[in-house]
Design goal:
The mean pLDDT is 85. The radius of gyration is 22 Å and the shape is extended. Helix 3 packs parallel to helix 5. It has 148 residues and is an all-alpha fold.
Length: 148
């Protein structure tokens, strides 16, 4: 390999590289992500059928999806599903719960405070910070547009 030209090396790499399964990956992401959304709609419909208002049913649905996602992550079901679904498992609320729980599980051996608690927001922390900052900026712009 040391005596290969750049073109020869590029051909060698192309032979060894795994071929992209774009359509298969996109299909799995679409189907699995869609099924997660359908599950959310079914949970919401269940809460509405039990007499909750739309707002209360939405809140209960969010809490339920976060719980189910955290439970599935703890049981290693969510990560197994993500191997096939890829981006389809990044549906905002379930993907966010997974992003919080996964590092907590990975670092639990380092202790409760210095491991689990400290690493829990390694991935989700920046999302929380920038989400909060964006909402503050949006609120200020909205107030200015309305004239305080």
């Amino acid at each position: 390999m040391e005596n290969m030209s750049k073109k020869e090396y590029q051909k060698y790499v192309e032979k060894k590289a795994e071929k992209s399964h774009l359509w298969k990956d996109v299909t799995f992401a679409f189907v699995i992500g869609g099924l997660i959304c359908v599950l959310g709609q079914a949970i919401s419909a269940f809460f509405k059928s039990r007499g909750l208002s739309v707002q209360d049913a939405s809140t209960a649905t969010s809490v339920t999806l976060v719980f189910l996602s955290a439970l599935a992550t703890g049981l290693n079901v969510y990560n197994s599903l993500a191997r096939y679904a890829g981006a389809g498992t990044l549906v905002p609320i379930t993907g966010f719960a997974n992003a919080v729980v996964s590092p907590a599980i990975d670092f639990k051996a380092e202790g409760f405070v210095t491991g689990m608690a400290a690493k829990m927001f390694v991935i989700a922390g920046p999302v929380i910070v920038f989400g909060t900052a964006a909402s503050v900026v949006y609120g200020i712009v909205l107030m200015m547009m309305r004239g305080f």
